[in-house]
């Protein structure tokens, strides 16, 4: 049974999901706290949010390394320095390699109902397809792109005049609530993974991660 008290959160942009986790973890009963925030780029609001909250930050840029494998190793080492129980990818726009995945459970939030519309542009792709309902997914990352086992999902309606920005903002309201609730339950109750099934709480029959 895994527990998720110490969180390292990875961001690449505005960090509103990060802010939701920071706000929730201000309550000691939440069961988890953000111990560090990492990013793949400088000058983003997600890093500024961490600094305002007096949370340590780090940046590892892919372009600073001769190979992707060296970046994979570098970001894994930066994460490891904070000894997380759970890494939360919250708008982090880089695919994490096995040095990170083999060392820590990584929870990712995606703005679509996986397995539909994986990748860097889930909202745009769902809108282009003409779906009437989309949503958000919280899943445990594996070596694939958004292929890991699903932990939680929530549906969000698409309105006729939606553009990508409007729809994404509607999704993000639901997504922040889903992520905060899911991380909190994982921290307080633990989780198990059996094949593609993730169970939160003290369930029998699952593999212990
Ligand atoms: N090993 C994994 N790492 C990550 C996953 C995952 O499922 N497995 N999810 C992503 C988050 N994500 C969707 O939820 C996602 C983000 C970015 C990309 C992507 O194609 N990235 C490109 C670069 C894009 C850019 O720099 O703007 C890349 O990595 O080369 C796909 C899916 C977090 N990490
Ligand atoms: N495929 C990855 C992806 O699209 N992630 C999405 O980026 C947004 C980041 O918002 P935030 O920086 O305000 O939390 C979130 O909606 C997250 O699901």
TrEMBL record:
Record CDD domains: FMT_core_GART
Annotated residues for binding of N(1)-(5-phospho-beta-D-ribosyl)glycinamide: 15-17
BP term (GO), one: 'de novo' IMP biosynthetic process
Q: Provide the alphabetized UniProt keywords.
A: Purine biosynthesis, Transferase
Q: What class of enzyme is it?
A: transferase
Its EC number(s) = 2.1.2.2
Boundaries of each Formyl transferase N-terminal domain copy? 6-183
Which is a Gene Ontology cellular component entry for this protein? Answer: cytosol
At which positions is (6R)-10-formyltetrahydrofolate bound?
Answer: 68, 93-96, 108
Q: Does the keyword Transferase apply?
A: yes
Q: InterPro entries given for it?
A: Formyl_transf_N, Formyl_transf_N_sf, GART, GART_AS
The active site annotation covers 110 (proton donor)
Q: What does this protein do?
A: Catalyzes the transfer of a formyl group from 10-formyltetrahydrofolate to 5-phospho-ribosyl-glycinamide (GAR), producing 5-phospho-ribosyl-N-formylglycinamide (FGAR) and tetrahydrofolate.
Family membership:
Belongs to the GART family.
The UniProt entry, under NCBIfam families, shows: PurN
Per its record, how is this protein called by name? Phosphoribosylglycinamide formyltransferase
